[in-house]
């Protein structure tokens, strides 16, 4: 006995209509009189349930089935009957129902609305709800869309290392990794921790970005991307920060900031279009129950030509706006979310790239512009959120890069391999980073990162 | 000026023939007389180089170009001329060559054969060699093939957590993760490490497997897979072990061991076929220069129906073989590589699933067979390597699972969420794990895991 995937029945209904079929799934609801009953069955392959009708005169185990608890898993055999006059397009008239696994009356997902906060405490069961079924299916589709987008363009996918002995940005708090016995940390003759006894023979951390390693591959394969987990040990207990999250970082050689922005725009549109096409039921759900403006916002993105404005122009726009911001605006500040949202939502009313930021608020590796004050950086701002992508052209000039590292107190010797890329056939190159959870939140309207990660890792929380 | 990707010129030659084009790339070799010269140019988008011919009478900077060092990056503009009589199918007659980035005479990749060991010391430059260009392009294609395979079958991709507070198999040495100050580890009143002060408020590790979390998603979405990095802090300095590697772990509900093996067989064939179709130049290279028998072995896999044998039958075959093994054979031992290779290479001469292993050598979560001695496990053995996949049906019986955990000294309370899957609509389900680097080694003939990982992490080595 083999259950047909319920998605197939919805997508290729003609093929199964009036035929005897077998499905398997979990009971979302069951209601029955003395003579007949209805089951809403979901098998996880599709957002929607299939309706099962069962009758006492056909089923020897009618009473058992009528009293099953929500969450029980069953196999159902019966005829698929089209019901054009009803709410659901078809139903199965059960001829046989076999119980695969029972559930109990204390199953935590009863047929009522549960708060997202409560559902976080049962993260192992929440994908069985409508909301999380939709979120995690879209997460899966979006991940695939990203691979498809880059692979169809000939990009090489690089697995940059997770364990690292360098700090990618000279910033970002990192998790240390160790096999030393914390109860009894070995010390050297000076009383310092003896990392020579650690697994790697030195101090190591979890990566905060694969960018620097990705650059080495871009200067070999031209167009590359990495897509993997990254980590921040930041004590930020906000709806937008997690200690573990996935990031997409493409890197392109023989390319400048303009090419980088074109790539980012194409990628964002591709991801959203792919998900909209492949999960219409899920987006209808989000648009109805989570965020009314969602579909308009997404359609606006995929049909707009993204705007471009320099940081300096953006600051002027903010100063001239007459708006009162919590963080005062002047040239040189890092734009806050309130500023970003004003620019994208009120000035341009569509996604906008802000370029050429002051070098003092950006990372050491960004290409210095001729003005001596700014770097060839870009942030993509989108309505409803603010910044969603950050990128730049990379400094390809060996001397400028070394000088900038020294200005920032970094030791160039620690980055000799990175500097080599500027010694041996360096090229213009550029890249950007997209936080994967951030685009999932954007596409679903879900406002807390804890609700788009399977088992979220945040301050004081690493359950499951 | 925008360089056309060299791959496009090879794949759609007619489109560019006799036209003026521009390419960009890195010089693999340059040789010149006083009046003309040849450059082998590679831009990373394709395994092969394109030949550039340049002549003194056409190029103002002829002397500069003739003396460029290997590794320099250039833009070349000129006409693409078909050369049906020559070794290469076409060449570019340069009209303009612009230097993008110089290289130096001490560029570490000179035009000679370098040992793989030496190339590991310049892991940031080695993707610019033929061998690593081929390895990492195939790695990228294989990763994509895996996503394509599962997504086309409706599987949901789950990002299971990397940071974990549980140990997936009750085995496997793990890396500890901490933000505690190792110079001064906080202790509680009993003198033990005070993990309540650590980032997550408890002791955490890097995952060794996403399986248990994947099971929670399979019992919601039916068919799921995870594909992400996993970690082992094992002090094994062998060509097959790394501390960081990627793993594919599908999990399927309403499915048994037979379904699991069908899925594994289909997946392996799909990955190999996809790579063979999309990287013929790379496979020709491996087959010529790395492993003469490679293509035969891969073709044997994709055209065979995989064999099936139980562990008990396999032990009988080994005992009856008359072969002398380093590790003596008797029922109950864990099969060693020499045993596995005998079974797959000499008995079956094709891939073979060995099933129903003694429960004492397998993990707690595997489904116990009715004989009381074995579990519904499977290993896939392939010629040339031995085990490449390990999987099982999972124990779906709550009581049997709890009893097995207790027998093994595990505390069921630590796994309450995992046990819940057997309380609330449990179903038959199964899954397997494929070490990603292992299949890349298998497909390329590369015998050391350090040569299929971008920046390998092994005992005492976390460089770059």
TrEMBL record, chains A, B:
<comment type="subunit">
    <text>Homodimer.</text>
</comment>
<dbReference type="GO" id="GO:0140096">
    <property type="term" value="F:catalytic activity, acting on a protein"/>
</dbReference>
<dbReference type="GO" id="GO:0016740">
    <property type="term" value="F:transferase activity"/>
</dbReference>
<dbReference type="InterPro" id="IPR006195">
    <property type="entry name" value="aa-tRNA-synth_II"/>
</dbReference>
<dbReference type="InterPro" id="IPR002312">
    <property type="entry name" value="Asp/Asn-tRNA-synth_IIb"/>
</dbReference>
<dbReference type="GO" id="GO:0006421">
    <property type="term" value="P:asparaginyl-tRNA aminoacylation"/>
</dbReference>
<dbReference type="InterPro" id="IPR004365">
    <property type="entry name" value="NA-bd_OB_tRNA"/>
</dbReference>
<dbReference type="Pfam" id="PF01336">
    <property type="entry name" value="tRNA_anti-codon"/>
</dbReference>
<dbReference type="InterPro" id="IPR004364">
    <property type="entry name" value="Aa-tRNA-synt_II"/>
</dbReference>
<dbReference type="InterPro" id="IPR004522">
    <property type="entry name" value="Asn-tRNA-ligase"/>
</dbReference>
<keyword id="KW-0030">Aminoacyl-tRNA synthetase</keyword>
<protein>
    <recommendedName>
        <fullName>Asparagine--tRNA ligase</fullName>
        <ecNumber>6.1.1.22</ecNumber>
    </recommendedName>
</protein>
<keyword id="KW-0963">Cytoplasm</keyword>
<dbReference type="GO" id="GO:0003676">
    <property type="term" value="F:nucleic acid binding"/>
</dbReference>
<keyword id="KW-0547">Nucleotide-binding</keyword>
<comment type="similarity">
    <text>Belongs to the class-II aminoacyl-tRNA synthetase family.</text>
</comment>
<dbReference type="InterPro" id="IPR012340">
    <property type="entry name" value="NA-bd_OB-fold"/>
</dbReference>
<keyword id="KW-0436">Ligase</keyword>
<keyword id="KW-0648">Protein biosynthesis</keyword>
<dbReference type="GO" id="GO:0005737">
    <property type="term" value="C:cytoplasm"/>
</dbReference>
<feature type="domain" description="Aminoacyl-transfer RNA synthetases class-II family profile">
    <location>
        <begin position="136"/>
        <end position="456"/>
    </location>
</feature>
<dbReference type="GO" id="GO:0005524">
    <property type="term" value="F:ATP binding"/>
</dbReference>
<keyword id="KW-0067">ATP-binding</keyword>
<dbReference type="InterPro" id="IPR045864">
    <property type="entry name" value="aa-tRNA-synth_II/BPL/LPL"/>
</dbReference>
<dbReference type="GO" id="GO:0004816">
    <property type="term" value="F:asparagine-tRNA ligase activity"/>
</dbReference>
<dbReference type="Pfam" id="PF00152">
    <property type="entry name" value="tRNA-synt_2"/>
</dbReference>
